[in-house]
Design goal:
The complex is a heterodimer of chains A (339) and B (260).
Chain A (H helix, E strand, L loop, with lengths): L7 H18 L7 H8 L7 H35 L12 H18 L9 H25 L3 H25 L2 H12 L7 H20 L1 H7 L3 H6 L4 H23 L5 H13 L4 H23 L10 H20 L5
Chain B lengths: L2 E13 L5 E13 L3 E6 L5 H8 L7 E6 L2 E2 L5 H5 L2 E4 L11 H6 L14 H13 L15 H14 L4 E4 L8 H18 L2 E5 L3 H7 L2 E6 L2 E5 L1 H6 L12 E4 L4 E4 L2
Helix pairs in contact in B: 4-5, 5-6
The chains are: A mainly alpha (339), B alpha/beta (260).
């Protein structure tokens, strides 16, 4: 498995920088590309409003997109290898469901538990969804200690999703129209609502998740042969599994808490990356999916902005429109999703 | 030559819901020496795979003792165990998107650093394993392109690259035609001879095992018998292996014959 640094890496980094610049230069307000670039390189832009838009709005948004894309893709890769299932993603452990449940209880529960109607702040929403995903994650880790079978864990995650969906349905039946609308908007997902300090918090959590993932690279490679072989190669299965689950929880949980449930990135990017590098070696895939995921989400966000118009499309819709055909294309090209 | 594997009063099987042991086979006693080529035979469900999985540490024993190079198996760390025992299992690989060399390289995991980087020595051992199993031409191929027989050899090469004194294979010749069965078995025997490794495998091809093995462990409903094939023939152990209504063992040819 020894090889030189694949040529794809410098390529990916170049594309990432390019997408980053394009993402920042495009938006509802037209700012010339040269002015954006100049602003980023330290020259003052000709109009004050431009620098404000770039520094206070577009830069945090671009960084969020990078964190969200990279984090979700990495957690998807971890899940696919851990569950040896090409269809696994950050959603399967019920982490996103937990976040949705937290958000739903806060927004929709208002009427039922008679907090009275208050417009719920973004911060409260983040807290509620973080709590929800952490709660589900802790439950999953507790269950993982008892259930030795990884497939059973997968099904338990799906059951959490069903319970969440049911609770959300009940809540929305009783909720007011405005509350329902706010919840729906949350499920659209967004990368544009984070303040710089929130971006930093998200960045720190994602970095922790990345470090944990890097520490499990060797076990992940052994797990490609299945748990029995991995154990025979000296991998401490229980410990590795817990580390992988915690890393996924940190990545997917924090991303969903801050940006809402964003579909398909976690599922599609690991497959695209395997195709690009033509390998299953996690020493290449871990940095690969982070870069690829960041690029893809920057692109999706650029499209969602509908440049030069004042509309912003739900990013969740864009990732699905981009992601679902990719999965279908992969299936058609390869007949079976080899992972 | 010293004993590589000492098994005394070993009971294997499963634990029920209340933790009560459900034994599959009990009171196993045998020892294997360095470089021996050993097969485990017996009817379906008699516990061949369970024995192998227990010895490999994939499954827990119920009671008794397993000594590897004189040390109790339980006292070894996962890494020490991984550098004393390698396995080839029947379960299908979850992914076949690895190249032959990548898969064989994974056998070096017990010796590599935290990231799994191969040293020059590791690369040489991997190349040796590939050469020994005659896989040079397939080195860069993906595993999903291989036939069953080729994949089996790749898995054996991976176990060889793990460079352990004991190598265990669970039914390595199932699904292969007679020619490839013999090819795989011969490779295993050469590994035992040339590298001084103790190779133990389960099989249903009793006639081939009789021709090739140094020792055979026979598991049947009355217990177990351990010894060289010729001794088993003398003791008429093979006759007791299966119910006698359909087949019988012919001691002169060393094969089973269908009864008329």
């Amino acid at each position: 498995m020894n090889r030189k640094l694949p040529y794809q890496f410098p390529l990916l980094i170049l594309v990432l920088i390019l997408c980053f610049c394009i993402n920042i230069s495009l938006g509802s307000v037209e700012i010339p590309f040269s002015a954006t670039l100049g602003e980023l390189l330290g020259y003052r832009a000709t109009e004050d409003s431009w620098s404000y838009i770039i520094w206070e709005y577009r830069l945090p948004k671009a960084f969020t997109a990078i964190l969200v894309g990279g984090g979700l893709s990495l957690s998807g890769l971890l899940m696919q290898t851990l569950f040896r299932n090409p269809l696994a993603g950050p959603f399967v452990l019920g982490i996103s469901s937990g976040a949705s449940l937290g958000a739903a209880l806060l927004i929709l529960g208002g009427g039922i538990f008679s907090f009275g109607y208050v417009l719920i702040s973004d911060l409260a929403l983040t807290l509620a969804s973080s709590l929800g995903s952490i709660l589900v994650l802790l439950t999953v880790v507790a269950v993982a200690r008892r259930v030795k079978d990884t497939m059973a864990l997968l099904i338990i995650g799906l059951m959490f999703a069903s319970i969440t969906a049911a609770v959300v349905t009940i809540l929305s039946y009783f909720a007011k129209a405005e509350e329902l609308q706010q919840y729906i908007f949350w499920t659209f997902g967004t990368v544009g609502n984070l303040s710089s300090s929130q971006v930093i918090i998200l960045g720190v959590i994602c970095f922790l998740g990345l470090l944990l993932s890097i520490s499990t690279i060797k076990s992940l490679n052994a797990l490609l042969l299945g748990e029995s072989y991995a154990r025979s190669l000296g991998v401490r299965i229980g410990r590795s599994r817990n580390l992988i689950i915690i890393a996924t929880g940190l990545l997917a949980g924090s991303v969903t808490a801050f940006a809402g449930p964003i579909a398909f990135i976690g599922l599609a990017v690991p497959h695209l990356t395997r195709q690009l590098f033509n390998t299953t070696d996690h020493r290449i895939l871990v940095p690969g999916v982070v870069l690829y995921g960041a690029i893809l989400l920057l692109l999706c966000d650029t499209i969602a902005q509908l440049p030069s118009s004042s509309y912003i499309l739900p990013i969740n819709a864009i990732t699905s429109i981009v992601g679902a055909p990719v999965v279908i294309w992969l299936l058609l090209r390869r007949r079976n999703m080899i992972f | 030559m010293h004993n590589v594997l000492d098994i005394s009063n070993l009971s294997i099987g499963y634990r029920g819901k209340d933790g009560k042991p459900i034994p599959v086979a009990e009171n196993l006693n045998f020892s294997l020496k360095q470089g021996e080529f050993v097969s485990v035979v017996g009817a379906n469900g008699i516990g061949k795979s369970t024995l192998l999985r227990t010895l490999a540490g994939v499954q827990r024993k119920l009671s008794g003792e397993v000594l590897i190079n004189g040390k109790p198996m339980g006292s070894l760390t996962p890494q020490e165990l991984a550098s004393s025992l390698s396995i080839v299992l029947t379960e299908p690989l979850p992914t076949r998107n690895l190249t032959v060399r990548e898969l064989i390289s994974l056998g070096r995991q017990p010796y590599t650093n935290w990231l799994g980087t191969l040293t020059l020595e590791d690369t040489e051992i991997v190349a040796d394993s590939i050469r020994k199993t005659g896989l040079e031409a397939l080195e860069e191929r993906k595993c999903y392109e291989l036939s069953d027989g080729q994949l089996q050899k790749v898995l054996i090469a991976r176990a060889l690259a793990q460079d352990t004194p004991v190598m265990m294979l669970d039914e390595p010749t199932t699904h292969l035609d007679l020619y490839h069965k013999v090819q795989v078995l011969k490779t295993m025997k050469e590994i035992a001879r040339e590298f001084g490794k103790t190779v133990i495998y389960t099989t249903h091809e009793i006639d081939l095992a009789i021709q090739l093995c140094d020792q055979m462990l026979i598991l049947d409903s009355s217990g177990h018998h351990f010894g060289p094939p010729c001794q088993h023939i003398e003791d008429r152990s093979f006759q007791r292996l299966f119910p006698s209504d359909l087949i019988g063992f012919d001691s002169r040819t060393g094969t089973f014959k269908i009864k008329n």
